[in-house]
């Protein structure tokens, strides 16, 4: 089997695409398919480039990553940030409890 060209699965077998019969209308394969995510549309950055002092126009994901890295920026969004517990001394804790009880 050659390593190049286009191949498709038909009846559980890999077949060169130009030799394969088309799937019947409405039928599709249950095999997993790769997901393709399009590149970012061109946009003007909301942050300033440290080197030029201006907001650059970013033209793709790679340029976006390079801009963030070069300027020390970090993207935030759906990142999980664990809540921090406040550390109280024993005397502060006792004072808080007394304050609540007296109220």
Straight-line N-to-C gap: 82 Å
Tally of DSSP helical segments? 2
- Return residue spans where pLDDT drops below 50 for at least 5 consecutive residues: none
Instruction: Indicate the overall shape.
Output: elongated
User: Strand content of the residues, in percent?
Assistant: 5-15%
Provide the gyration radius in Å. Answer: 29 Å
* Biggest sheet character: 2 strands, antiparallel
Read across the widest sheet, the strand sequence of neighbours is: 1-2
Mean pLDDT: 85
- Provide the succession of SSEs: EEEEHH
- Considering DSSP H and I runs of 4 or more, what fraction of the residues is helical? 10-25%
Structure description:
With 103 residues, this protein is of the alpha+beta class. It has a domain at 39-74. The protein is 23% helix and 12% strand. It contains two helices and four strands. A hairpin with a 2-residue loop joins strand 1 (7-10) and strand 2. The model has no long low-confidence stretch (mean pLDDT 85).
